[in-house]
Amino acid sequence: MAQVFLKKLKKYLMLNSKLKIIFEESFYALTVSLGVFNILELIKPRIVLAYFNLNWLLLGWVIIGIILLVFSKENKE
Amino acid sequence: MNKFRLILRIIWLTAIFLAVICFIYWAIIPGGKITYIKDFKHYSDFIGNLTPSDRVKDNDMIIGDPAYFSLRLPRRFVNAKATIKYKIDPLISIVELGVLKDNRTWQYDLQPLYNAKLESLMQKWDVIREGDLMLLQKNKKFNSIADFLKDTPDLNKVALYNYDLNNNYILPAYQPSKATTTMCRPLQGAYQFYTYIKNEKLSFDFSFQDLNKISGADPIDVYVYYQGEEIYNQHLDDDGIVADNGEQKAWRNLKVELADLPEGVYEISLGADNDIVTRTIATTQSKMTFINKISLADAPEVSCGLNFFTNSRQLSVRTSSSDRLGEIKINQASGSAFSEILKIDQPYQQFETKADLPEFSKVTMPSGGIDLSGDGLFSSSQESFINPKIKKIDNNFEADREGVEYILARYTPAVHEGDWLASTANFDLQTAYKEFNKHSFIISIPGLKAEKNNSVEVKEIKFELSGTSFFEKIKKIFNVKF
After folding, report:
1. Which one of B121, B132, B141, B326 is most buried, counting C-beta atoms within 10 A?
2. Mean model confidence pLDDT for chain B
3. Nearest residue of chain B to residue A49 (CA atoms)
4. Is B336 exposed, middle or buried (0-12, 13-18, 19+ CB in 10 A)?
């Protein structure tokens, strides 16, 4: 099931360059967000965590990262 | 760069920037005012859960007294207005909310939330309300609170709640004692007592033993109050051992001696943690009455008497040592019309008297190592007992039995919102104790016990906090007049 989904996604990403850009920019933005929010947490603990669970951001970052990795591997092949 | 990519990047960076601004804004709260709500359905990072777990059911139902929760603040605030919505069992008389003021003596600034005795008397008696003050009269005599305060009736007919009435308590037949007496029952931790002075020095010589069983410094502070005002204080540093190794140095003394004091009642408060044992108190004063509790230290070598006299209507006892289990005998001080035996058969458990105690009782303890507490005063002899306190509306209060005809209270009645009650209490956070930006709050419900199947269900806790605004702070720093 997951393999079918990944295959469909790869095909869709290859055909749709705009979606690829969205994923790439989202990945960069989430990387920056994680960095900035963690620095804020270091400066003043719970400043971010009081309102927003950074685990969700990390989860999104990992998922988008995996999708981009799979896509770039497919492109090279 | 691709235009689409550029637009996306700008959108993302703007979102991140706005998010950072929001988080900083919520952390510094430039307006100085914010409201935090805990509704027990959603997680709140600022208002903690009700604890301990054995006194709380389903997160929001308090089944044992007391319950605690914390309030975490992102910055400093001056005042907190707490509003609690709750449902109460009809058998519960009093609910109070307090903030921790002193973490060594576990002193809380308690404010009323609900008082069933007052709410019930408000339906039957004449009520005069002026702001948050109210005067209840069984038979109307005074037209205003000012009239009542100007011409206060016999204080035996007056009861107070959350209000301190200046009571110029005088013992007409009192004669100062010339001899020095020594109270040799060892007392653990903090305590407060009343004494009486008339043409004599106030003289107390305390000797302390530091057990060093709890890690950390064990400083001792003694405060003397007259008519509610602190008139003297003295500090004794730790003995130099901060480890919990049980090493003990020689007993140390602290002497309080004050001359030329006006006649009247003085309150002496000793602030210390449970590592400190007061071994002896040598005094020339003949009156010495402990307020609400006595913690007898576990010192088996002491052969002093283990009797106390009290006017408490209800007593509770507890021991933290399994070697100190036994029976506490409570008898009517004069005569033998009443007697009750309180069995302490488990450590760390509170045992309470079942029936209302007589006006004055004698309590015989089996040994030391027992905490004795009640709603009244305690003394080691009948002769040294004084009661300068005006009656308070507590769990055991009965207006007719006590002969009370006037009640002066600082109390705002609870508001009914359907099945729920809503009560508000205000706290000064500047004088409250704070650790890691957290204040500790207590919900006190005297008499509430898990085994009695009573409960208080809390629907919502709301804190409206106010402090210095960013603008006011800048004004203060630069002392600018706008």
Report:
1. B121
2. 89
3. B45
4. exposed
